[in-house]
């Protein structure tokens, strides 16, 4: 019997609601992420429509964060101190669960995207995977043997502090940390840094040098701390600026200082890659979460 799943990719700028199976999105709806009530109500309305037509067996939520993903926590599924105005404390999971009464799972959008790339994308066969997204915010998901890494919370790679490029005085825009990864590399950070939309800045403009340096520092940190077989770098910034990833990779050997002999230029070409699933990685991951939710219910 073929099961059909619903998924919500809850992003900082837009929300994507999809119907299908892992590997095959059949229907989708996209709309801006506004207030919690308006956004979640619209997502639920779409899922209920599919359910009323007998098309929904379970659902998954791939959410921006930070969000509580530990099932044993009293605030499981609740948005924490997010930079997204108005969303701190939003009861994401319970809002959807009360409306659907179906098997339901929640994880971060980046963990979901990592699951999708691991299952059918650029990270197949890799025991240790990092998915880094650079868009409205910056987030990172980590998989160990196909399972998302959850600890005290979940990885918050976007708020790590960096060793800055000499002479770069941009203060960053993160309201928590200033010049953390998100404060330096997110889409809004680049607008503040450049004084214009990144799409208006030529690929060869030297203002990209500091951006490539910062991203290379992030990647070096990930290589040294997690030793991944694949780092998939997605999100609107890198997807729309294809010159940025090669420029970043070229800086990595210098930053690593010859310490890791295996990190040759050729090896880095295989290690640091764009998502094979493109912008569908997150929505596809939400369907994987839904499939896992149904499997977990059957096992209980």
UniProtKB/TrEMBL annotation:
Reaction(s) this enzyme catalyzes, per UniProt: D-fructose + ATP = D-fructose 6-phosphate + ADP + H(+)
Pfam hit, one: ROK
InterPro entries per the UniProt record, alphabetical: ATPase_NBD, Carb_Metab_Reg_Kinase/Isom, ROK, ROK_cs
EC assignment: 2.7.1.4
Membrane as UniProt keyword: no
Cofactor: Mg(2+)
Gene3D superfamilies assigned: 3.30.420.40
This protein's UniProt keywords: Magnesium, Metal-binding, Zinc
Protein name: fructokinase
């Amino acid at each position: 019997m073929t099961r059909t799943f619903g998924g919500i990719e809850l992003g900082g700028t837009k929300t994507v609601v999809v119907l299908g199976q892992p590997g095959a999105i059949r229907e989708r709806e996209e709309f801006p992420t506004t207030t919690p009530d308006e956004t979640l109500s619209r997502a639920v309305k779409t899922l209920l429509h599919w359910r009323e037509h007998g098309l929904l067996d379970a659902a998954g939520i791939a959410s921006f964060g930070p969000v509580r993903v530990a099932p044993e926590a009293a605030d499981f599924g609740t948005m924490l101190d997010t930079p997204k105005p108005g969303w701190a404390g939003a009861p994401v999971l319970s809002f959807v669960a009360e409306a659907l009464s179906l098997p339901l799972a929640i994880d971060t959008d980046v963990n979901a995207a990592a699951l999708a790339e691991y299952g059918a994308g650029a990270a197949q066969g890799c025991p240790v995977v990092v998915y880094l997204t650079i868009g409205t915010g910056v987030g990172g998901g980590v998989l160990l043997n196909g399972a998302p890494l959850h600890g005290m919370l979940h990885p918050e790679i976007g708020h790590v502090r960096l060793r800055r490029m000499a002479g770069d005085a941009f203060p960053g825009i993160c309201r928590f940390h200033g010049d953390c990864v998100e404060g330096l590399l997110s889409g809004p950070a680049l607008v503040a840094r450049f004084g214009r939309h990144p799409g208006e800045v030529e690929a060869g403009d030297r203002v990209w040098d500091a951006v490539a340096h910062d991203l290379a520092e992030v990647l070096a940190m990930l290589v040294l701390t997690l030793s991944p077989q694949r780092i998939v770098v997605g999100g609107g910034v890198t997807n729309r600026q294809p010159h940025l990833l090669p420029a970043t990779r070229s800086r990595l050997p210098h930053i690593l200082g010859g310490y890791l002999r295996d990190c040759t230029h050729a090896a880095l070409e295989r290690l640091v890659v764009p998502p094979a699933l493109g912008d569908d990685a997150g929505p596809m991951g939400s369907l994987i979460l839904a499939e896992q939710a149904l499997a977990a219910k059957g096992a209980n």
